Each structure stands twice: as C-alpha cells, then as structure tokens.
Amino acid sequence: MADFVGAVDQGTTSTRFMVFDHSGAEVARHQLEHTQVLPRPGWVEHNPVEIWERTCVVIETVLSTRHLSVADLAALGITNQRETTVVWNRRTGRPYGNAIVWQDTRTDTIAAALDRTGSGDLIRHKAGLPPATYFSGGKLRWMLDTVEGLRADAERGEAIFGTVDTWLLWNLTGGTEGGVHATDVTNASRTMLMNLATLDWDDELLDLFTVPRAMLPRIAPSATPEPYGTSAAQGPFGGELPVTGMLGDQQAAMVGQVCFAPGEAKNTYGTGSFLLLNTGTDIVPSTCGLLTTVCFKFGAEPAVFALEGSIAVTGAAVQWLRDQLGIISGAAQSETLAAQVADTEGVYFVPAFSGLFAPYWRADARGAIVGLSRFHTRAHLARATLEAIAYQTRDVAEAMERDSGVRLEVLKVDGGVTANDLAMQLQADILGVPVSRPVVAETTALGAAYAAGLAVGHWRDKEDLRANWQEGGRWQPAMDEKRREREYATWRKAVARTFDWVDG
Fold first, then answer.
1. Closest CA to 19 of 74, 57, 56
2. Which of 12, 128, 344, 473 would be 271's cystine partner, CB 3.0–4.6 Å?
3. Neighbour-count burial for 237-266, b at 16+ CB within 10 Å, e otherwise
4. SS3 of 153, please?
5. Cα→Cα distances 175→43, 84, 386, 422, 434, Å
6. How many CB atoms lie within 10 A of CB 138?
7. What is the distance, to the nearest Å, from the Cα of residue 465 to the centroid of all Cα atoms in its chain?
8. CA distance linking residue 489 with residue 307, whole number of Å
9. Residue 441 gets which letter from DSSP?
C-alpha cells in the first residue's frame, strides 16, 4: 500500500504541492507564486495557463527532489481558491481570457440589479448566498456578455466553465485528450447557480444569469471512492494517480482542522479570512450577513453544511504594506514593526480594498485609515493592520453567534498569518476567547489530502483523522474587558466611515 497522499493547493497568490504521511505530517512541499494582474481599479485577474504551468512545476519538483513516484501516492486531492472563474475551449484548451478572481468587483452593477429586481431573495433562498461580486455566477455572466463569440461557443458546448479546481482537474486528466470536466459540491455552492437542497445546478438560477447548462461541470462529492479521474501519463505525475478528493480551500481547511461535528469552527487567514461553523446536515439560513454553504460531502453520506463569514482582505493587507507602501520587506517584518509600539494610539485601518464582505456586504466601501495625527509612525500602521485582521474576525464571529446561537469557546486558526504570534495574541484579546493553532498550520492542503485518502481507505474514518490533530500553540485573552469593548466600538465607527464611497 502507498505510504503517502498528495495535495495540490491552488491559492490566490501561489500554488503548492504537498505530500502527507499517515499521521498527517508534512513530508514534502514546493510552492510558487503567480502573477496578480490588475488591469484597472477593482479588477483582479490571473492567467489560467500560468497557474497550470506552475502546478506542473511544483508537482514535478516535489517528486524529483524527494525521489517519489506515483506508486508512492495512494491518491490526490485538489483544493483551490474559490469563486475565481475560468472559461476555456474544450477543443483547443485555450482560455477565453484571464481568470476573474474572487476579489474582482467589476460585476457590481450585475449584483446590484439582481437585488433591485427582487431576484436577490431567490438567490439567497436557493443558493444560500447574497447577490455579490464575490461569487462566480456574475463573473460568468459578465464574460458571456462581453467576450466576443463566447456565448455562441457556450451554446454549442465548446466553451466550458469551471472554478480553478475544475480547470486543474481537466488539465491533469488529459485536457483536450479526454480531460474530466467536473467540480465538487463545495465549489459549486459558491457560484450562485447551485441549489443547496438538490446539490445540482438550478434552472431558475441559470436563467437569472443567462448561463447555458452545457458549459457547466458535473457536480460530485468532495471525497469519492469512484475517482473524478486519473492523472494522464503525459502530465506532471508521469503516470496514473486517482483524483479522489476535491474541496474549496475553506472547506478543505475545515476537514484539515477535523471540524466534523456541528458547532465546531475554524478561521483560516490567507489573502482574506474565512470563519466557518459546521451546522451539520441542516441548511441554516443567515439573517446576519453570513453565507450558507456546503461544508463537505463524503461519498454517499449526506452533505454537511456550514455558516461562513468571508472577509475579503486580511493577509492581503500585510502584502499591501510590503508591495504598495514599501514599509516592510516581508510579512514577518509586520510583527517586529508592530511590536515597536504598545498600541495604535487611536489609528484604525479598514482594508476595504474590494468593498466589505461579511457581515456588511458593502460593495460601495473602500479602504480607509482613520485617527491619524503627525505623531503616528509606520509602526502604528503595521499594528493597526494586524488589529484590522482581528476586528474583522470579531465582526463575523458576532454575526455567527446571532445566527446559530453558538458561542465560540475557542477559535481554531490556520493559514499564513498564524505564524505571526502578535497577530494571534491580538486576535485572542479582541475576540475575548482563546486562540488555538494546530501543529500543521497549512490545513487547507491537509484537508484535501484527508478527503482523498479517506475515499481510498488510506484513513479508515474521521476518527482516524481526529487522532492526528495536535495543538501547536495557544493564546489566552489578556485585554481588559472595558478596553476591549471601547476599542471595538471605535472600530465599528471606523468601518462606517468607509461606506458610500463608490457611487452606485
């Protein structure tokens, strides 16, 4: 029996391939960034061909440097940045343009029109999502309406759509030579086109977005013993490897954090942050600005659902300090710089670069730094950036408590920002609950591996996976309650300053 399971983790800024052993420990990884294409304000794109090429390189690098072959891997899991929209030609394999990234706001008029006409309520009821620029359906409609010849090709079944998981699966399994066109329920649930109750594309929603059914992928479980397909021999694996797990990145992190029971929650800090709460087999509608989404579906078992609070900009705010402002040379420096001051001395940074996601859903918002005086330094701004990550998480946690009635007793965390000890202490202080980080912080890739391995019996059951989870760090709240509430109230005031900046 093969000793390891592989996982492709295709994120917003980079692609990595990781290999895990039976204990859930990392055996190997390689990671490459890809280009962030920013053609105009509010537009964010990726080159799908570059992403595929980088995927091949990271796989080939891990296999060659660790002297691994397909025979050493029991299965492959794929996890991906969700909502990012790719359309390509089935015959040629060429995309019709760059991928439109989840952060992109060009579809704001489409989303606003859906709400004005009352269609927003239908989308909320069937798909569990508000009409927003975040999701794939509006991006796909924009492409169909603006890319010359695309709609005609889509009607003929030549132009096909997928989120990044589908694009990678199609290429890994042969591309124009029999590539599999499929997605899983978690990614499909982020399109505004899938009905949560049926777990299938919904004709009424397709009509709203004028999307031909012929261009949509088949929807499958997140973990399936009948593989999505097998890797093509001419691809980066150089042989046949069953692809048996596929989940959107945040749902994969839920699996990696073994949040299998109702009431269990995690927060992943990446480009954005995503707090998910397992609600079991119940579809729980949100009245507080959260999303109702599929958490995972393993084989023939019933689907498990979640409430999600999606935050557009957290780790990306640290990148902004590095790339746009140039006040830090790397992400790690944000911690040392912020630690130079005891507090922000009244500065608040609301990084609404792409509007505000949960729980506000304000596409008209834009970023703001408030409370500045001549006294303030770059250290205060660095600390305000870390605090903004924690404050946005509290916004979502409070909405989640109102929707579910569940009070977080501890927040499980993962993702790149968790390497920043000061950020995690600020999170505990601002939230008022302990923060717990696992030994394996890259739980997104681990979750994809777990799903794939479960499907083929590499792990027997979910209890096998629970036994693997180990705490690697814990932060206790140290902030006075009165100060916590006073500063949070000021944060909410700062958020309000960002509203109504972009005219509808």
1. 74
2. 12
3. beeebbbbbbbbbbbbbbbbbbbbebebbb
4. helix
5. 28, 19, 42, 45, 47
6. 27
7. 22
8. 25
9. -
Structure tokens at 415: 């993702």
Q: Residue 27's closest CA among 66, 55, 53?
A: 66
Strand partners, 16: 9, 31
User: What gap in Å lies between CA 74 and CA 76, rounded to an integer?
Assistant: 7
Tell me which amino acid residue 191 is: T
Question: Degrees (nearest 5) of the Cα angle 234, 238, 240?
Answer: 95
Q: Which of 297, 343, 346, 25 has its CA nearest to residue 188?
A: 297
CA 244 to chain centre: 20
Distances (CA, A) of 11 to 15, 78, 196, 249: 6, 11, 25, 8
The residues pairing with 298 across neighbouring beta strands, listed in sequence order, are 223
Please state the pTM of the whole predicted model: 0.87
Question: How many other C-beta atoms can be found within 10 angstroms of the C-beta atom of residue 373?
Answer: 9
Q: What is the residue-level pLDDT of the chain in tens, covering all 504 positions?
A: 689 999 999 999 899 999 999 999 999 999 999 999 999 988 999 999 999 999 999 999 999 999 999 999 999 999 999 999 999 999 999 999 999 999 898 998 999 899 888 898 999 999 999 998 989 999 999 999 999 999 999 999 999 999 999 999 999 999 999 999 999 999 999 999 999 999 999 999 999 999 999 999 999 999 999 999 999 988 899 889 999 999 999 999 999 999 998 888 899 898 889 899 898 998 989 888 899 999 999 999 999 999 999 898 998 899 899 989 898 888 888 999 999 999 999 999 999 998 898 899 888 899 999 999 999 999 999 999 999 999 999 999 999 988 888 888 889 998 888 999 999 999 999 999 999 999 887 899 999 999 999 999 999 999 999 999 888 999 999 999 999 999 999 999 999 999 988 875
Which residues are CB-neighbours of 487 under 8 A, at least 6 positions away?
A: 430
- Is residue 260 within 8 A of residue 182, CB to CB? The reply is no
Rounded Cα distance between 33 and 54, Å, is 8
Residue 163 parent element (H or E)? strand 159-163
Strands 471-475 vs 99-100: parallel, antiparallel or unpaired: unpaired
Distance in angstroms (rounded) separating the CA atoms of residues 386 and 306: 27
Tokens at residue 431, please? 């939230």
For residue 294, with 0-12 CB atoms within 10 Å meaning exposed, 13-18 middle and 19 or more buried, which class applies? Answer: buried
Residue 128 contacts by C-beta under 8 Å, 6 or more apart in sequence? 189, 196, 283, 285, 286, 291, 292, 293
DSSP 324: I
Does residue 359 have a cis bond before it (omega within 30 degrees)? Answer: yes
Contact 503, 291 (CB under 8 A): no
